[in-house]
Design goal:
heterodimer, A: OB fold (Dihydrolipoamide Acetyltransferase, E2P), 3-stranded antiparallel beta sheet, globular, B: alpha/beta, Aspartate Aminotransferase, domain 2, Aspartate Aminotransferase, domain 1, 2 domains, 7-stranded mixed beta sheet, Single_hybrid_motif (chain A), GCV_H (chain A), lipoyl (chain A), GCV_H/Fam206 (chain A), Glycine cleavage system H protein (chain A)
Chain lengths: 123, 524
């Protein structure tokens, strides 16, 4: 399984054709305490860069963009009751949705963990 | 004369009664503790006596309520005291400087109120015969005249009820114009990052696709990027000027020419018109439609004090598509042009934004403001708004990072970031500490392009003495944030309530009062 990052601070873990998407630890730190998350519905078709989810903190509301194209398998049901999971475990339990990738070659344009770390260090 | 803290009392001085025992009531002299209204009243008490209904048979069938309604019963003086006590825990424009960057003018002249309360305006009904409301129609027509004159535009729709409603009005006119031209396929509205957040929402609501245009490092629209995106699918652009970074969009005329050449229209968000009124006419910049917040630029109360009002001015090209109704002067008579009378000379109107004619009370106040200030007075309003904001910006830029300080003078809003604060300190700590200093906090974390943004809009009516006092307070608090003063994290210390858990309140809001269990049992 490999993990990729976008410049908009989403991450995606890819296992075969299935990806799991969330926002990075850096992103949750910038947003502050997260109070609401809206995840996409099962079966929703997303094109890379589409608004896939909404995350609201005490400071701001932000869109989460889909790092890849594909069909949503499921949104994380735990976030409705416990949006704080995104703060406490952004790159684990705080995942947003799982997606079946329609074009795995899109991953080539994303960053790996070390490239993302270097990207964040410059911000 | 300073507006607050005239006693010279400082938070660093010993607090009166600091060593005294807590009071029996929990009150602190003039600062009164106040329970919830549900905790004061009970349903055995009532302030009014209502005779039992005369009708013996209910026609509600099975829908009649069977349980008690559980509204608190209070007498009139108890009710008045409750809300007056609560109001004393609040901050208001009549108490002191309000640095919030707002869509609402924080100055509501008393003369406006006097005029709006004249019975000939205040007691009208919108369905009265036209012949009996000639004075009111004349007010609408005169205000329309001055709005068109001040903006250099061609016509105005008076009925939209607020800024975002005005945006929708403008975008619907653009949509109607495109459809009339047979170019309804133009489906994209460009919205720069420096625009108000309502702009993309409006465009999407009207059925357009929204595309962002980036901002340059100096906080303005990236004109080259905008021009590069123009094409046969572009319906128009929505630009906020002055923009959310507090800056004047200097390229607006160039942008308008390019958008027009590409077949699109220019919508200008005029919420910040108060910074340029009397100095700049948006019509000269190629704007096709712009809303004017009467509750901002023309001082009518909003935000708890009254309804908004967002008339939209139009260019000659968009005028045929403006909504109904509008007032027309015919000789000595003022006529209301509505659907029945519009067909002959306003057939392309896109329809109607409101059931009636708009916010009459706001029209009276706005016209009063315009006529009592005159052209020179309005120009001075804009100049003082800009001068005051620049005074705040330049007075504090040695302690607070001002990201756009090099972009030229700011308009009516000064923007700072949290750069340089000690580790773990954020804008919210500064805002909360300002409460202790006796000020309402500034706008926090907006605009989003500025990290930990603090946006200060001082209002044009504030004197130098008041501004100096605010600047001194913000400087003192900023220095504590830079130095990492731990007491800042728990501010406010002197407010009726100390730091609230805003996260918990947002995650688990309690919106309905429930009687404590013990009380409920005792009542049964």
């Amino acid at each position: 399984m490999s993990r990729y990052f976008t410049q908009d601070h989403e991450w995606i873990d890819v296992d075969g054709e299935t990806g799991t998407v969330g926002i990075s630890d850096y992103a949750q730190g910038q947003l502050g305490d997260i109070v609401f998350v809206e995840v996409p519905e099962d079966g929703k078709k997303l094109t890379k860069g589409d608004d896939a989810a909404v995350v609201e903190s005490v400071k701001a509301a932000s869109d989460v963009y889909s790092p890849v194209s594909g069909t949503v398998i499921e949104g994380n049901p735990a976030l409705a009751d416990d949006p704080a999971l995104v703060n406490s475990d952004p790159e684990g339990e705080g995942w947003f949705y799982k997606i079946t990738l329609s074009d795995p070659s899109e991953l080539e344009a994303l960053m790996d963990e070390s490239a993302y770390e270097a990207f964040v260090a410059k911000l | 004369m300073s507006a607050i803290n005239q006693s010279g009392w400082r938070p660093t001085a010993p607090q009166q009664g600091g060593n005294a025992a807590p009071t029996f009531t929990g009150n602190k002299a003039l600062m009164l503790e106040e329970p919830l209204i549900f905790e004061i009243g009970d349903n055995h008490t009532t302030g009014v006596e209502v005779a039992p209904p005369v009708t013996a048979t209910s026609r509600l069938g099975g829908l009649a309520r069977t349980a008690a309604i559980d509204l608190p019963g209070l007498s009139e003086p108890e009710t008045v005291r409750h809300y007056t006590r609560l109001s004393r825990q609040n901050y208001a424009i009549d108490l002191g400087l309000f640095p919030l960057g707002s869509c609402t003018m924080k100055h509501n002249p008393r003369l406006n109120e006097k005029m709006a309360r004249l019975p000939g305006f205040a007691d009208l009904h919108p369905l009265q015969p036209i012949d009996t409301v000639q004075g009111a129609l004349e007010v609408i027509q005169q205000l329309a005249h001055w709005l068109v004159t001040l903006t250099g535009m061609h016509s105005v729709a008076m009925s939209p009820k607020a800024g975002a409603h005005g945006e929708l009005c403008g975008i619907l006119a653009i949509k109607a114009a495109l459809e009339k031209r047979g170019e309804g396929h133009r489906k994209v509205i460009l919205v720069p990052e420096s625009a108000h957040g309502t702009n993309p929402a409006t465009a999407a609501f009207a059925g357009f696709a929204v595309e962002d245009i980036p901002a340059t490092a100096d906080g303005r629209v990236d004109t080259a990027a905008l021009k590069a995106r123009l094409g046969p699918d572009i319906a128009g652009v929505m630009i906020t000027n002055p923009n959310t970074c507090g800056l004047f969009e200097r390229d607006l005329r160039t942008i308008s020419e390019a958008v027009h050449a590409a077949g699109g229209y220019v919508y200008c968000d005029g919420a910040n018109f108060n910074a340029i009124v009397g100095r700049v006419r948006p019509g000269d910049l190629g704007v096709d439609a712009m809303h004017i917040n009467l509750h901002k630029t023309f001082s009518t109360p909003h935000g708890g004090g009254g309804p908004g009002s967002g008339p939209v001015v139009f260019s000659e090209r968009l005028t045929p598509f403006a909504p109904l109704p509008f007032v027309e002067k015919r000789g000595d008579h003022f006529a209301l042009v509505e659907e029945e009378t519009a067909q002959d000379h306003h057939a392309d109107s896109f329809g109607r934004m409101t059931a009636f004619h708009g916010q009459m009370g706001m029209f009276t106040r706005a016209l009063t403001y315009i006529l009592s200030h005159g052209a020179d007075g309005l120009r001075q309003v804009a100049e003082d708004a800009v001068l005051n904001a620049n005074y705040v910006l330049r007075s504090l830029s040695d302690v607070l990072d001002a990201p756009f300080a090099a972009s030229g003078p700011c308009m009516h809003e000064a923007i700072f970031s949290d750069k340089g604060f000690a580790e773990g300190f954020s804008t919210i700590d500064v805002a909360k500490a300002l409460i202790d200093e006796g000020f309402h906090p500034m706008t926090m974390y907006f605009p989003l392009v500025v990290h930990g943004a603090m946006l200060v809009e001082p209002t044009e009516t504030e004197s130098k003495a008041t501004l100096d006092q605010f600047i001194g307070a913000l400087r003192s608090v900023a220095e504590r944030a830079l130095a990492g003063d731990e007491t800042l994290r728990t501010a406010p210390h002197f407010a009726p309530r100390s730091r609230l858990d805003e996260t918990l309140a947002a995650r688990k809001p309690v919106l309905v009062w429930k009687a404590p269990e013990t009380t409920a049992e005792a009542a049964e």
